[in-house]
Design goal:
Elements: H1 3-17, E1 30-31, E2 37-44, E3 53-60, E4 63-70, E5 76-79, E6 84-87, E7 89-91, H2 99-102, H3 107-110, E8 114-119, H4 131-145, H5 154-164, E9 169-172, E10 174-175, H6 176-183, H7 193-208, E11 214-217, H8 228-235, E12 245-248, H9 256-270, E13 274-276, H10 289-302, E14 307-311, E15 316-320, H11 327-330, H12 334-342, H13 347-361, E16 367-371, H14 384-391, H15 395-405, E17 411-415, H16 419-427, E18 431-433, H17 454-469, H18 475-482, H19 484-489, E19 506-509, E20 532-535, E21 538-542, E22 545-546
Parallel strand pairs: 1-4, 2-5, 2-6, 7-8, 8-9, 10-11, 11-12, 12-13, 13-14, 14-18
Antiparallel strand pairs: 2-3, 3-4, 6-19, 15-17, 16-17, 19-20, 20-21, 21-22
């Protein structure tokens, strides 16, 4: 089979799954009946990747009732002439978890056209938490945000989302890091057979609570201490479901290809689908590996592994500043990590590892501080190299001091990927669009950082920069990557498509003007060109403004395989 044929066939088959729950209305059919909202005269991109067509869309309650020619008037009507009408965007890899309780309006998310967040990523979900972790998290959110946490697992979090009804809907994976931390702790050692059994039980409990997959964060502690056998055993609990093993791989630079082989191995041996999280090749010396990684993914899919990947549309990533150091140095928690940085027996090796990481990125100016509080808030938004020179400090010593004085809680943005590779991955038929970002707002507590601009601009950036300006892919393909494809990957029938009977998640945007405005120096900026967003039938963004009406809800999986 030719490469193009197998890729197109696999994508088309997935696209069809997203709407299996309800039949489609005949194309172009005139429909009569009550509608709470009618969108008229737009160009419809239905989420399947098929060609667009002109037509109307009718919504009643939380469902699309007609697609084609709508003859009756709606209670509310939108003139969409010259506009694109698409399914609401699904962020397959989001970190908008507890921030949705801090500010349920989810300003930076819904204004992008995102209507469903898939959280619990990189091995870190909302629970399961030990008593100690729950109390620390509860106390921090009570103190910093005035938010009371009354749950300690994924099921409880989803129940809270249903009560709060934020602006966006939420699905969640179960995090391997949470599970390992609860059962094994933060130490660098293999899990015992009994511990693996207990972790498998927690995966089943997470699925029973509504999780839609298992995520790993293998560059982070304690997930980095897991063996392949442990990962296969836990991923095996997904067998018989459609839910993916989603992996932030063990390495995304010098050992990228070995890390990718491990992710594919887990899916192959466990017999489950795979989602490679935010695929990238970091460091100029590793940029050539992007083609090799894509070839490996294509080969695995051709050999029967149901594998996809996601990617955000930027050449920089975001993480904690402590991740400039190896996982072995971070074992046992923050206090032990900071003690090792000060210990003359361990500090030299950690310094060498950190400087090697900086050499891979190119310079200290490839690191930008995104989050830090207290007396060092002046560092927020600054490049480490420039800041160190300005203050007359060695950049490594500055890094250590910032970590020490902030108790290890410092965020960073790292510039390490190429534009050509970013475009290639975004446009690849097996790739989906994600933000890998959180929810923010230019006001209130969620404005107290200098975050990666992806939290505000990922989806409009794809539509404006990569589709319109660079012509990296057709608009219908981009919409598919943001809607029908992720919906199908997670088995969310009736979502991600414009079809009679589907959930009424809809975005109306102007293909000629849509663009991201957030950048690395000024990230708290809403995008342009997205005047209307409807979430579960609720008109949340109207004429470019937040209405205060919010229709988000929890989206739960069907539980463990029976």
């Amino acid at each position: 089979m030719r490469r193009r044929d197998f890729l197109a066939g696999g994508t088309a088959a997935l696209a069809g799954l997203a709407g299996l729950s309800r039949p489609a209305a005949p194309r172009g059919a005139a429909t009569r009946g009550h509608a709470s909202l009618v969108i008229r005269g737009g160009t419809l991109y239905d989420g399947t990747g098929g060609p667009p067509r002109s037509g109307d869309l009718a919504i009643d309650g939380d469902r699309i009732t007609a697609v084609g020619r709508v003859t009756d008037a709606g209670t509310v009507e939108i003139d969409a002439r010259g506009m694109a009408v698409a399914p609401g965007f699904i962020d397959i890899h989001s970190h908008a978890d507890l921030s949705l309780l801090v500010n349920p309006r989810a300003e930076s998310r819904v204004r992008q056209g995102v209507t469903l967040e898939v959280v619990g990523q990189d091995g870190s979900s909302i629970g399961p938490w030990s008593d100690g972790v729950f109390e620390l998290t509860r106390d921090r959110y009570r103190r910093d945000f005035g938010v009371e946490l009354d749950f300690r697992d994924v099921g409880g979090f989803l129940d809270r989302i249903d009560r709060e009804r934020p602006a966006v809907s939420v699905a969640s994976m179960i995090g391997h890091g949470n599970i390992r931390g609860l059962v094994v702790g933060g130490t660098d050692r293999p899990a015992t057979e009994a511990e693996v059994g207990r972790m498998r039980g927690l995966v089943r409990e997470g699925l029973a609570g509504g999780a839609v997959g298992l995520s790993t964060g293998l560059e982070y502690t304690p997930g980095s201490f897991a063996s392949r056998d442990e990962l296969v055993a836990l991923a095996g609990e997904l067998r018989g479901t459609i839910y993916p093993y989603a992996s932030h791989m063990r390495n995304e630079d010098d050992r990228l290809l070995a890390a990718l082989e491990e992710a594919l191995h887990v899916g192959r041996v466990a017999g489950v689908t795979v989602q490679v999280s935010h695929l990238k090749a970091q460091g100029e010396g590793n940029h050539w590996k992007a083609d090799a990684a894509l070839a490996a993914i294509e080969a695995a899919r051709g050999a029967g592994v149901d594998v996809h990947f996601d990617r955000y549309p930027y050449v920089a990533y975001a993480t904690g500043l402590s991740n400039l150091f190896p996982a072995s140095g971070r074992a046992g928690g923050t206090a032990r990590f900071l003690a090792r940085l000060a210990d003359p027996d361990t500090a030299p090796a950690l310094e060498r590892a950190c400087r090697d990481k900086i050499a891979l990125l190119g310079s200290w100016d490839a690191v930008q501080i995104s989050r830090i509080g207290g007396p060092n808030a002046y560092a927020r938004g600054r490049r480490l190299g420039e800041l160190a020179a300005e203050r007359g400090e060695d950049p490594y010593e500055l890094t250590v001091r910032l970590l020490r004085e902030a108790g290890g809680s410092v965020g960073m943005i790292g510039f390490g990927m190429s534009e050509d590779n970013t475009e290639r991955m975004l446009s690849h038929p097996l790739g989906m669009v994600c933000s890998d970002g959180g929810a923010y707002a230019p006001y209130g507590p969620l404005s107290r950082s200098s975050p990666h601009p992806r939290g505000y601009g990922s989806f409009p950036r794809v539509l404006g920069y990569y589709v319109r300006d660079r012509r990296a892919m057709p608009l219908e393909a981009a919409v598919h990557k943001m809607s029908g494809l992720p919906a199908a990957k997670l088995g969310l029938g009736g979502r991600g498509v414009l079809r009679a009977g589907a959930v009424a998640d809809v975005v109306v945007f102007d293909p000629d003007t849509v663009r991201d405005r957030a950048d690395f120096d000024n990230p708290h900026q809403y995008p342009d060109g997205i005047p209307h967003v409807i979430v579960s039938g609720v008109h949340t963004i109207r004429d470019g403004e937040q209405t205060g009406q919010m229709g988000g809800r929890a989206v739960r999986g069907g539980g463990p395989a029976r």
